[in-house]
Design a protein that fits this description.
By secondary structure, this protein is mainly alpha-helical. The chain has eight helices and two strands; from the N terminus they run H-H-H-H-H-H-H-E-E-H. The protein folds into two domains: 103 residues, Four Helix Bundle (Hemerythrin (Met), subunit A) (Up-down Bundle); 94 residues, no CATH class. It has a two-stranded antiparallel ribbon. Helix 5 packs across helix 7.
């Protein structure tokens, strides 16, 4: 299936310059970003069925994050645009979902604020590091916190009991774990920046 999609995109009647932008991984990433307004509209009217639909859409968007990276590496079509769009899409989807969960009382606003502030601070730090001539690579802690955030938001989107368990309670527990990892990984990035800056 992936090979078919790749060959389909290769045969599109567009210039090589545009193909560099509109390749399969980048288009998957753009589709993930396109899910955001749908989540926004659906969360405005949360009900049991809609909550499940929203959660499924969110999970699909999260899973395609693995897919676009895999395709880009397998077919050697990693691009600058892809490197920019991929992490941006992750942050936009997770942050939008968390922000939209605040007014319907499913997530504490202070936790969302800490997570978003940490992400902005780390992004700024990595930009400064690149101008100073060194790269702060994504850490295992950072990947773990992203995974926890995705699980937490998925459960909070479902909200209602599922298979005999309270999805909301499960989501809150995982959210606190995500918060710990978020702060911990943020400190880790600042320590890496400090070590790189004093070399």
């Amino acid at each position: 299936m992936i090979d078919f999609l790749k060959s389909f995109f290769d045969r599109l009647p567009i210039s090589e310059k545009k193909k560099h932008i509109f390749n399969l991984p980048n288009c998957i990433t753009m589709l993930r970003i396109g899910v955001i307004p749908i989540l926004f509209l659906l969360i405005l009217n949360p009900g049991r069925i809609l909550s499940l639909i929203i959660a499924i859409l969110f999970i699909i968007a999260a899973v395609t994050d693995l897919l676009d990276g895999y395709i880009a590496r397998k077919y050697s079509i990693v691009t600058r645009m892809g490197k920019l769009l991929d992490p941006l899409a992750d942050k936009l989807i997770v942050s939008t979902a968390m922000i939209m969960l605040i007014p319907i009382g499913r997530i504490p606003a202070w936790i969302v604020a800490i997570i978003i502030i940490r992400d902005l601070a780390v992004d700024g730090l990595r930009s400064i590091a690149s101008t100073e001539g060194f790269v702060i690579h994504a850490s295992r802690l950072g990947k773990q916190k992203t995974l926890c955030q995705i699980f937490a938001v998925s459960a909070l989107l479902i909200h209602y009991p599922l298979f005999g368990a309270s999805a909301h309670t499960v989501g809150i527990v995982i959210l606190y774990l995500a918060l710990i990892l978020t702060v911990w990984s943020g400190v880790d990035y600042f320590l890496k920046f400090h070590k790189g800056a004093i070399k």
